[in-house]
Amino acid sequence: MADLEIDLLTIFPGLFDAFLDESFVGMARERGLARIAAHDLREWTDDRHRTVDDAPYGGGPGMLMKPEPLIAGIEALAGPKGPEREARVVLLSPQGRCLDQGWLEEAARHQRWVIVCGRYEGVDQRAIDLAIDEEISLGDYVLCGGEIPAMVLVEGMVRLLPGLLGNAESVAKESFTQEILEGPQYTRPPIFRDLEVPEILRSGHHAEIARWRRERALEWTRLRRPDLLERKLERTDPPPERNGPAEPSEDSE
Ligand code: SAM
Question: Which fold is adopted by the domain 4-158?
Answer without folding.
Answer: Alpha/beta knot (3.40.1280)
